[in-house]
Description:
By secondary structure, the chain is α+β, with helices and mostly antiparallel strands. The chain has helices at about 10-20, 25-40, 95-110, 125-130, and strands at about 5, 45-50, 55-65, 75-85, 115. Helix 1 (about 10-20) crosses helix 2 (about 25-40).
Amino acid sequence: MPIRPAAPRDLDDWTALRAELWPEDAIADHRAEIAEALASENDLIAFVAEDSEGHIVGFVEASLRHDYVNGCETSPVAFVEGLYVRPEFRKAGLGLALCDAVADWGRRRGCAELASDALADNLESHAFHQAVGFEETERVVYFRKAL
């Protein structure tokens, strides 16, 4: 299945996939974030995977992070902000292909590292990351206190 940079024509399919990955966010918020990604010329990118009928069945969004990225030693770092493949298309190499597209994009921008994160209880994501070549670097628990 072809992997290509996301384009404005992908708005509806991409929004639907984002809503599957992040259902707690409003559709309007997804659309606004997609518009920001499409308008970015340097620090944000998205790639999509198409099925044989031209429908978007997966996406990856990435950014260049210039601040410290946990577990990394260089800057900037290409960072996978979100990756999703529809369940019926998983285990076919699309996730790896999407990560490879981001890695190539990061290399062209001078990055020596590709990073990502996952919630502590998202064991499926942990397994995916390890399967496509990521190594776990650390675990962090965040705390807050209202003032």
